[in-house]
Fold this sequence. Notes:
It is a single chain. The protein has helices spanning about 25-40, 70-75, and strands spanning about 1-5, 10-15. The chain has two helices and two strands, in the order E-E-H-H. Helices cover about 30% and strands about 5% of the residues. The protein has a two-stranded antiparallel ribbon. By secondary structure, the protein is of the alpha+beta class. It has one domain: Collagenase (Catalytic Domain) (3-Layer(aba) Sandwich), CATH 3.40.390. The structure holds zinc ion (2 copies). One zinc ion binds near residues 46, 49, 66, 67 and 70.
Amino acid sequence: MGLGLCPGQVCVASSFRLSKTDNMRQLFVVSIHELGHTQGLPHCPVKTCFMRDAEGGNPTNEETEFCPKCKAHLVSRAWAL
Length: 81
Ligand SMILES: [Zn+2]
Ligand SMILES: [Zn+2]
């Protein structure tokens, strides 16, 4: 679905493995996940967090937000969340 340098300045997101319905929302989740990697965020064990590891599947519908820990990391890098 996506790949991002961690940390780095580039990432890619693809809709290829996403389901046909709700495609744009899922692509948003994948994109924000990869952008999180470029900010130095590792994968997160919180099920609803955008930084959850997809582990070969597609859990994007269960991801609703950044958890407090990931959010704090991004806010410290000047993200307006
Ligand atoms: Zn990832
Ligand atoms: Zn998290």
